[in-house]
Amino acid sequence: MLKRVLVTLFVTVYFTSCKTVKLAKSIDQKITTSFFDNQFTGIYIYDVTADKILYNYNADKYFTPASNTKIFTLFTGLEMLPDSIPAFKYAVNKDTLTIQATGDPTFLHPFFKDSTALKLAKKYKKVHLLANNISDKKYGPGWAWEDFDSYFSPEVSAFPMYGNVVAIQNEYSIKLTPTYFADKLKITDRSYGRKELSNSFYFGKNRKRDTEIPMIINDSLLLSLWNDILPNKVGLIDKSPLKPATIAYSIPKDSLFKRMMEVSDNFLAEQILVLASSTLSDTLSSAKARNFILEHQLQDLKQKPRWVDGSGLSRYNLFTPISFVEVLTKMYQNMPEKRLFQFFPVGGKSGTLKNWFSGNPKPYIHAKSGTLGNNYNLSGYLITNSGKILIFSYMNNHYMHSNGEVKKRMQMIFEELRDNY
């Protein structure tokens, strides 16, 4: 009986090993063609159940990750934030409410429309707002200056409102949120945008697509936006004799993370790190959150990243494929698969992967893409036809091909893994 078991085990190990070697050779053949000559490619594939590395190509080299950075941001939020988002801290003295900012991005946001702060503020005669407790600059290091009015580049702030953007719709007539900017919007023949140094916006009269244009955030605007919804009630203060210590909570954190990952929302990613820092001290600092997670939960990473923002907009970020797989593995081992996979775009079905990597007949890719000019990366989870879970990171930097051509070659490798492992 024992002999039979040992023989069976030997045969299983032998054929599994042969299959792995065959797959590795096939991937080698695909990525050593002339197509890859003038780009930088890194691939790391890990069988999490078998605790086995299936493939490693330049996986310990550093790459520009683009929005793959949001995987680290997701991990930070999961580790540092409570089940519901800390909307703000507050204290009450008779008829006065003092609110201290935590960086919560959901307040009156076009998608979440959270009104936790507004509901509480309505109950008091006076509202004092402390929002000078952030050390982050409005843009991350290395962000492109010309993106100041692009939808994907809202400013970072201590107390965001409306997602820090002006949202414009033109289905039957022009609708603007917040309406405070109605007299600052000019209808033109051009597409859309904003003056570089002022909150003066323009929008094409024939444009039908829903549009978001970042605001310039400052104390004056924050005060005006608050008093637009609560007239003559809200004031900004630099310090308070009261210490706001009670925490008010807004939406479930998973809802925030899912939105951030599915549509690759840069603003939400940046604010999640600011939020995470609010659990460490009253001073809001995304750097403090990044350093904390690297020094504690991620101190065992084989290659420490250069991690400068939450979204991946900065080209200063440098990460290795191995690091992404390590973090993805930690998340896979620490939470139910169903909850984890909900955060990631699904190949051929949702988010940034809706038009790529579709399954036949069912989805098999749950992953986060990362795109900048001449860079495309994808890291996440691949489910094989045999039911195995592979954790992977496939990074492409500095190519001159189209993104579509790069994705086609990635898809060939993913489908081979799906069908033959």
From TrEMBL:
Entry keywords, A to Z: Carboxypeptidase, Hydrolase, Protease
Any Pfam family the entry gives: Peptidase_S13
Source domain of life: Bacteria
SUPFAM superfamilies associated with the record: beta-lactamase/transpeptidase-like (SSF56601)
Record has Zinc-finger as a keyword: no
Any Gene Ontology biological process: peptidoglycan metabolic process
GO MF entry, a single one: serine-type carboxypeptidase activity
Regions annotated as coiled coil: none
Family annotation (Gene3D superfamilies): DD-peptidase/beta-lactamase superfamily
Family: Belongs to the peptidase S13 family.
Protein's name in the database: D-alanyl-D-alanine carboxypeptidase
Species name: Polaribacter atrinae
